[in-house]
Design goal:
152 residues; membrane; 6 helices
Length: 152
């Protein structure tokens, strides 16, 4: 019964009510903490912090570090891509050889069989464009005003 009693008083909370969990940011931004820091830090330090040009070299160092990290990242990416690509190529080489052996003659045969049709289409298009230009020339010659415009 003693344990049960303790659980009941815990649930009630001894008149305090439920306690909310305080985030750490509230402890950092508490005014007393800032005031304590202001009291215990020497004034020369705060003056150096506000006036000296320490920020620019630090920023330059951080930028350099960032650039080095980006360069390392790019090199790692290139290495990963290169190794993956070489593995892929080494595994695809037999496939490429089989394609070269079997598919290439078939494609060449297809192109050769389509060549007469392509030549016929090209000659037809040439003939058609020549006829169109002849019709255009004849119509422009039948209207003398347009011919004068062309001469000018």
């Amino acid at each position: 019964t003693m344990q049960q009693l303790r659980m009941e008083t815990d649930a009630i909370g001894a008149g305090e009510g439920p306690q909310r969990a305080v985030p750490w940011s509230a402890w950092v931004s508490r005014e007393g903490w800032v005031r304590w820091c202001m009291c215990h830090v020497p004034p020369s330090w705060t003056q150096w912090w506000t006036t000296s040009g320490w920020r620019q070299p630090l920023q330059r160092v951080l930028w350099g570090l960032e650039g080095v990290l980006y360069l390392l990242l790019a090199l790692m990416l290139c290495h990963a891509l290169f190794t993956t690509g070489s593995h892929l190529l080494s595994s695809l080489w037999p496939v490429a050889a089989a394609v070269w052996r079997h598919l290439l003659p078939a494609v060449l045969l297809l192109l050769l069989s389509a060549l007469p049709a392509l030549l016929f289409t090209a000659s037809f298009l040439l003939l058609f464009s020549t006829l169109l230009s002849l019709v255009g020339l004849l119509t422009s010659m039948s209207h003398p005003g347009n011919a004068q415009d062309l001469d000018q």
